[in-house]
Amino acid sequence: MKRTRPIVAIDGPAGAGKSTVARSLADALGFVLVDTGALYRCVALAAKQAGAAYDDGARVGQIAGALVARGAIRFAADGIWLDGRDVSADIRTPDVAMGASTVSAHPDVRAALLDMQRHAGREGGVVLEGRDIGTVVFPEAEVKFFLTAPAEVRASRRHEELVAKGDAPSYADTLADVVRRDAQDMGRAVAPLKQADDAVLVDSSSMDASAVVASMAAAVRERM
Ligand code: DC
Fold it and tell me: Whose CA is nearest to atom 16 of ligand 1?
């Protein structure tokens, strides 16, 4: 399908600043933002609420399929809703983050969420952020970025966020979480996190967020 406005894929590891950058880029371009990690987080939260272990692939796969079938996950202007409840804060805890990484390795979970993501982006004029947008969900995306930064930089950002929220994890624990999540996300058999061949590599540690967004917006406008 020829789109009048492009699909922009932003992939990269946890804590690279994808959410902030994707939000600002979507605003700058007037595009819709789809945070695909939130979908995996909703599956993890639903599994937790159902008492299912994150690594029980068959059960979590069923839960994901049922969520999609009944349209339980909804992106609203004011946040993310699961079964009629605003779960925007509940899906951002460290436990659900690690759970999302674990549930996202199950093929049935990925299959359940794939059509939703393709449906959300197919008309273009959209920024999708995740791990496999440029490689699996939209390999034909017109513009792809791979946003990353060294693990230590990502961990210290994440640590600052958690401390600002009132949590008190140690920096060492936060770094260990980042390293473990990288290993899970890059090491899984299905749709592992990796840079697409045609993605532009952006290291967010060397520029401030507004400079990163400005250079990405310029790259997208060149294609429009
Ligand atoms: O971007 P995030 O931290 O909200 O994502 C949470 C987890 O979901 C991440 O550790 C891996 C998984 N994920 C994925 O496998 N594929 C995506 N497109 C997005 C997220």
Answer: 131
